[in-house]
Design brief:
Elements: H1 9-17, H2 24-32, E1 34-40, E2 46-56, E3 66-71, H3 73-78, E4 83-91, E5 97-105, E6 107-108, E7 111-112, E8 115-116, E9 125-128, E10 140-141, H4 148-154, E11 161-166, E12 180-185
Length: about 190
């Protein structure tokens, strides 16, 4: 069955469904690997979205995973430039962070540098992304993403609670661009495409 990298929030749903308490390490990982991505459209208006970084195993050097940036397809396609800016945080102390405006190339010579799911109804884009090592950014391990088989196995269904991290209406929780945690209920079928 084909893997669909679209529902990181279902990891949260699974943990709630089976009554597990989410570990602080997992919560922190999710919070620290979710970033705001920005660009502009043809009219010069801001285009904003959420993205997260996944660590893909490196076949050449397993000790150095490859960073894969995952976001919504419409976010990147709505941008009218060859680059996007990511608001990356790095920790200076227990209570102080610095924001680094990381620019990543999303287009080259009018060609997309990101990949989209072959099912055009799925609003998902992924691209390789180099993040400077001085930022010490962690990434989500590939094994934490849910695929269709996993969702079937844990029986996600309507009325399950879910959590989602992001930047609703462009807002962040503070000046360090931490995402906002929202919760909700799966309202109806279909659960996933």
């Amino acid at each position: 069955m084909e893997t669909k990298f679209l529902l990181i929030l279902f990891i949260f749903a699974y943990n709630m469904q089976v009554g597990k308490i989410l570990s602080q390490d997992f919560n922190e990982l999710m919070m620290t690997t979710t970033f705001k991505i920005l660009g502009t459209n043809l009219n010069g208006d801001k285009v904003e979205g959420s993205c997260f970084l996944v660590a893909k195993p490196n076949k050449i050097d397993p000790s150095k995973p490859v960073g894969v940036l995952v976001t919504a397809k419409h976010v990147l396609r709505d941008m009218d430039s060859e680059t996007a800016e990511i608001k990356v945080r790095y920790k200076l102390s227990d209570t102080l962070y610095e924001v680094y405006n990381y620019t990543t190339r999303i287009m080259k010579n009018n060609s997309e540098l990101f990949y989209c799911h072959k099912d055009t109804s799925i609003d998902l884009a992924a691209m390789y992304s180099y993040i400077p090592s001085f930022l010490d950014i962690k990434a989500i391990d590939l094994s934490l993403l849910a695929d269709d088989a996993y969702l079937d196995e844990i029986r996600i269904h309507p009325v399950d609670n879910v959590f989602c991290l992001g930047y609703p209406f462009g807002y962040s929780s503070n000046g360090y661009y931490f995402p906002i945690l929202s919760n909700g209920v799966i309202a109806s079928y279909p659960i996933y495409p």
